[in-house]
Amino acid sequence: MEAQRTAYHKIWEAHHVAGDPRQRMLMYVDLHLVHEVTSPQAFSGLRAAGRRVRRPDLTLAVMDHLVPTWERTRETPDPVGREQLRQLSENCAAAGIPLLDLYHRRQGIVHVVGPELGLTQPGMTVVCGDSHTSTHGAFGALAFGIGTTEVEQVLASQCLWQAPAPTLEVRVEGQLGQGVTAKDLALGIIREIGVAGGQGSIVEYSGDTVRGLSMEGRMTVCNMTIEAGARAGLISPDQTTVAYLEGRPAVPRGHEFAVAAERWLSFASGPEAVFDRRVHIDATQLAPFVTWGTNPSMSVPVGARIPELAELPSESAREAARRALDYMGLEEGTAIEDIPLDRVFIGSCTNGRLEDLRAAAAVAAGRRVSPRVRAMVVPGSGAVKRAAEEEGLDRIFREAGFEWLEAGCSMCLGMNPDILSPGERCASTSNRNFEGRQGAGGRTHLVSPAMAAAAAVLGHFADVRQLEPADLGSAALGR
Amino acid sequence: MEAFSEVEGLVATLPRDDVDTDQIIPKQFLKRTGRDGYGEACFFDWRYDADGHERPEFELNHPAYRGAEILLAGRNFGCGSSREHAVWALSQMGFRVVVAPTFADIFRTNALQNGLLPVALDDPTCADLQQRAGRRDGYRLTVDLRAQEVRDREGRRAAFHLDPFWRECLLAGLDPLGMALREEVAISGFERARSPLLPTTRHRWE
Predict the structure, then answer these.
(1) Which of residues 10-39 of B touch A (CB under 8 A)?
(2) In a domain, B201, yes or no
(3) Phi and psi dihedrals of B65, rounded to 5?
(4) Domain span at residue B16?
(5) pTM exceeds 0.95
(6) Between A37, A97, A295, which is nearest B18 by CB?
């Protein structure tokens, strides 16, 4: 029954190469994204076996994880990292894989760049040696992260052995309140279902709230799917998807665009789609969230307090919270707004797109970063950076005392020189608050871009909904 | 892939849920370009203090767990980043099996690709094993992939299930890539039938 098929099942069946689709099949990969950190061993494995890259024309490499965010004229500081970048250049040149290197104007975070170029389209399968590949699911693509051995397998065969997965519908309904963003929705969902709530499953986000999100917001939500432990997260394609793709470099034009768009929309889940599990989220109950612990489910609304240990449902939850609070240097029951900050990071594949920077700039405009805080803005890509500069966002950030930097993954994972020192506390728009994620001993609190900007100017967490909206005027935002 | 059939070994416990791959192998070790030398760095920040000395309070530093080949972990082991380095690090630290109630998906696949066997057992069984191994008196287990069974010397047995594809790969030492490449006719046929409207990366990206 067509009406009962999900987007996932349609994509699954359309990518069957060999084997039994009900047990384990060889699945074709339409787009393979590659970056410097998880690919060197895959390329050397190919070389050792005398194998070639099968489809360099379906592969795109980007330098993003360890690139410095300072001017591109300065060298990457550490020799081990430089060698990794050099190997990526060499491997791509030898295999004929297009590479957006450090100096390319389209360089950026792989999950920001792919969609920007129009390479991620509905109905496709997309993989990358990076867990946040789930981002591309926003387009109604089946997209997931893989390890280095699988990177090698895709390079050589353009295929992966895959077993079918159960489906989980996360239906979100109701209007998001003012100041409550896609990031808060993502954190709210993880808070509800837990960091293993999606384990083994393909999540489809649905409902009027999700339909109402921009593509950028949808990417934020799908990006965080991995933090709920799911294999992949996706959103059925609709007119918002089609409108975003029109005119992008890798997208067909004219009559072919109409044909492609019709094909894309055919991958949407049917009106009576059958899911193995369903979860309902009431968007009207969500608030701007702040994480207080060391995994993304440990969050509370900004106006709340860190939970008392006694309130937690189980001994294992209490033990996890005790460990987290000890690492974070926090006490149970502390009001979130009383937590002072040292650093603010705005960027990443979660929240480094233009809409995110606009939201942060709207809060930063006409204000000053607190003297106790060092605040950085790292655009998700060169294209995001240029677009933001055309709107004057860079000027707003700079005048407010934020650092305006070059594109890359930066302090989301601290593989480049942007790291927290031990004990430093950071409000971050990234995706993981794991111990040491942003630097050994560093303490990460996940928030939305607007909340990060508010924290930067006040030097502690604050409810962005209670700040007077800055008078940006349409001229200052260029729109 | 190296064949795997049975391991009889010492069990070490790490009774925490949601151990993420950032803890198993921190980012600074991901800049290397080889597959070796990660064992010393496994659980780096938990295992060593700022001066590089072992932290005595970290479970796996306990003398009774030296030489352990079976790691008994908590729920959702290996969540977070897709870094396969986490599996290389565990293997090179000496582990051949990880037993846990549940595993994160990408970690489990990475482990299987490298012959590190992820064995999922239910919560009560894991809790019982945690208690036994937690006594630190040399508790050992046999993990038998052929029989899909874990057993100890006192006759306790617990069955586990592994996807038949991976069971076959591990028992016979089969390489999934080699198996994929044997489907060349099917892959080429699939490629000929793909929509010409699908994007390629061959552009002058400007």
Answers:
(1) 16-18, 20, 22-23, 26-28, 30-35
(2) no
(3) -100, 5
(4) 6-193
(5) yes
(6) A295
Alpha-carbon torsion (B21, B26, B28, B33), positive or negative? negative
Q: B82–A145: do the CB atoms touch at under 8 Å?
A: yes
Residue B14 lies in a domain: yes
Euclidean distance between CA atoms A262 and A264, whole angstroms = 5
Shortest CA gap A230–chain B (Å): 8
Comparing CA positions, the residue from A243, A245, A33 lying closest to residue A143 is A33
Spatial separation of the C-alpha atoms in residues A108 and A461, rounded to whole Å: 29
Q: Which of B22, B84, B202 sits opposite A148 (nearest CB)?
A: B84
Residue A466 gets the label, from left (phi > 0), alpha (psi -120 to 50) or beta, of alpha
Residues of B in contact with A158 (CB under 8 A): 187, 191
Is residue A304 pLDDT above 80, yes or no? yes
- Let me know if residue B147 belongs to a domain: yes
The CATH number for B176's domain is 3.20.19.10
Partner-chain contact A58 B201, CB within 8 Å: yes
Convert the pLDDT of each residue in B54-65 to its tens digit: 999 999 999 999
Q: What is the pLDDT of residues A61-102, one digit of tens each?
A: 999 999 999 999 898 889 999 999 999 999 999 999 999 999
- Total domain count, chain B: 1
Q: Is ipTM strictly over 0.95?
A: yes
Question: CB of B201 within 8 Å of any CB in chain A?
Answer: yes
Residue B148 within a domain = yes
